[in-house]
Amino acid sequence: MILPIEYKSKKKKNISEKLVRKKIFETIDLNLLFLLKKRFLWMKNYFPKKNKKIIIELGSGSGCIKKILTNENIILTDIIKHSWIDLKIDMYKMNLNKKYINKVDVFIINHALHHCANPCKCLKLIMKYLKTGGLILINEPETSFFLKLIQIITKDEGWSYKKNIFNSSIDFFSSKDPWFSNTAIGELLFKDEEKFKKHFPDLKIQKNQLSEFFIFVNSGGVNSDIFKIPLNSFLLKFLNILDIFLIKFFPNIFALNRSVVLKKTKHNKY
Q: Does the pTM of the predicted model rise above 0.90?
């Protein structure tokens, strides 16, 4: 099956973050919890050990990160100011307070960068606030064959390879809808590491790993409720091992998630 280089979903995404948050924070569903742990627990290895640290998540949405990283002091931000959101921040503008310039230890962007119309511009603006040696921890959808197929079937989101993602003067899309997206952004930015380094010489890629197939497909969804087969911990771990095998040998077919760590290597003056 040959899939197009661009697909635009005609279905308008309408999600209640309050309902999603209620579902996530009250859930005892092992399938969903396994997926969330897979997405967030690895990040702890990159948090500074010092007591006073500044960790900011962009595009926090329901704030589901705090379901897993319960003891971490993470500042939640989003373009929509819900009661659990600490700061109203637009990723496109990065309108953080000046007190954070060259002070932030870690930025987290979990499945949110593809909702930014100009992700390269966003990363360059983040550099202003990230201290030297600071990190950007990213999870993004991976536009493998199966992710595209899932998007077409569910009419959930779209993708496009048509524009040069490294041209920060051109937006990928024009929309005031915070759910509008291009799920190819993670692949376009990070698949070719040499190309990324050419455009971001002050950011070093420390991690660039593909993951998730069955553990996502059978999770029931984070922002949605879809059919799943409830599994115990043993079977979920087995599925994860199966995912690792499938993605190692057939990444372009099965991978549904890309995890990236970027390190700022030089000091910027503003």
A: yes
